[in-house]
Structure prediction request, 120 residues.
Amino acid sequence: MRIAIAALLCATAPSASAKERVVGWTHAEANKRIYNGRCPVRLIFTGTISSARRGWFTYVWKRSDGITGPVRTLRASKAGESWRVRQVWDLNGSLQGWAQLWIPSEQHGSGTAQFQVRCK
Prediction:
């Protein structure tokens, strides 16, 4: 029984690199996951960033077309602080793609916010 509990504790304990991270959680989503209609169309991607501890970090939006948005810097004053951020992408034609909230200062990011646009 002790061995099983010790193994469980080791498996769920955060790694040293996770403890050092300022950002504990990220999420991204698109306002129009599937769009069929007139173009141009404006997609708005919103994301949430939550801090794991105090400190500075940078974030950017990455897109499936290879564009990376400007690097922005935020300061977490405590663990559990969160921010809502957004990115606008105007499309003139049909496209299937994604956007991702990326934390370059920590080399990790959210899952991708997938979308599909079909212009008529």
